[in-house]
From TrEMBL:
It comes from Streptomyces durmitorensis. The keyword Lyase applies. This is GDP-mannose 4,6-dehydratase. It is an enzyme of class 4 (lyase). Residues 135-157 are annotated as: Disordered. Keywords: Lyase.
């Protein structure tokens, strides 16, 4: 009997990466998962996966900023899922060099390893933030790139490198551009866990940034399936292309808070906190996806609506063991 195909995942210890790792194992893959090296020998969210899942996962500590780490990770893999990134937009105002090191140079290291080792498929992760505030809606992959934060600029830099490697070297790369993913294990740097975490901790006075922006929220299990869809589709359907992953729906932050209050059966009083508000020209006011290209190429479609996803996320944060991992009483930059 042939062994299960080996895939490699960068950023596997993170929010989406850990869910993707689970989903890959469930779909019959062996996973070599990179967690960022740290002196605590922490594997991040991978440590919370079920033993039967971890039995199919080889965890290695490394860093995408180091070419040797990346080469060792991807050797022998049939597909590489590149998710490692610095993600927090507010921190990118303070440490832009770090974002270039990880999101641009790290991506270059992955591309070089995939190219020279002739890996059959690389799935590169982009972000809807590269579009900036929507100029036309819904946003298709042909929407202009308009980076309004150092984070977005660094991700766009990685995207352009991926495109260039396909054009220059025929590197078999496909770019997935998820819109706002949410769900269990997400960082408190994102709005949904920020609200749910505060409520789960007993607060009814919620502090947030700007309440006006709208976002297209996709449940994390659906985003994971989008990655697998582009990672396993026939090459001629996806390689060399960029795909949006989103629901096509949008909701304002203010209305989102009200919906979370409904799901959690809590009356919430919301106030704006100035330190949570982005610089005016940096705030992306509207994002809503057109994912028809992804659907046509792979058949992918989201399996959860917003309220269903919120209910599962609330269940996660209401578990005291999970909530204890978070700092709900401070602004997590």
């Amino acid at each position: 009997m042939a062994s299960a195909p080996l895939v490699a995942v960068t950023g596997a210890e993170g929010f989406i990466g850990s869910h993707l790792t689970e989903a890959l194992v469930a779909s019959g893959h062996r996973v070599r998962a990179m967690a960022q090296y740290n002196s605590f020998s922490s594997y991040g969210w991978l440590e919370t996966l079920a033993p039967e899942v971890l039995a199919e996962v080889e965890i290695v500590l490394g860093d995408v900023r180091d070419p040797g780490s990346v080469r060792g990770l991807v050797t022998g893999a049939e597909t590489v899922y590149h998710l490692a990134a610095l993600i927090a937009i507010p921190y990118s105002y303070q440490a832009p060099h770090s974002y270039v090191d990880t999101n641009v140079t790290g991506t270059l290291n992955v591309l070089e390893a995939v190219r020279h080792l002739e890996i059959p498929r690389l799935v590169h992760t982009s972000t809807s933030e590269t579009y900036g505030t929507a100029q036309t809606v819904p946003i298709t992959e042909d929407h202009p790139i308009n980076t309004q934060s150092p984070y977005a600029a660094s991700k766009a830099g990685g995207d352009r490198l991926a495109d260039s490697y396909h054009a220059s070297f025929e590197t078999p790369v496909v770019t997935l551009r998820p819109f706002n993913t949410f769900g269990p294990r997400q960082s408190m740097r994102a709005v949904i866990p920020t609200v749910i975490g505060q409520v789960a901790s007993g607060s009814r006075e919620i502090t947030l940034g700007d309440l006006r922006p709208t976002r297209d929220f996709t449940f994390v299990a659906d985003t994971a399936q989008a990655f697998i869809a582009v990672g396993t589709a026939p090459a001629d359907a996806v390689v060399g292309r960029t795909f949006n992953a989103g629901t096509g729906g949008e909701i304002s932050v203010g209305d989102l808070v009200r919906l979370i209050g409904k799901v959690m059966e809590a009356d919430l009083d919301v106030s704006e906190d100035e330190q949570r508000i982005r610089p005016a020209a940096s705030e992306v006011m509207r994002l809503v996806a057109d994912a028809s290209r992804l659907r046509a190429a792979t058949g992918w479609a989201p399996g959860h609506d917003l309220e269903q996803g919120l209910a599962r996320t609330v269940e996660f944060f209401r578990d005291p063991a999970n909530l204890a991992r978070y700092k709900t009483d401070i602004y997590n930059i």
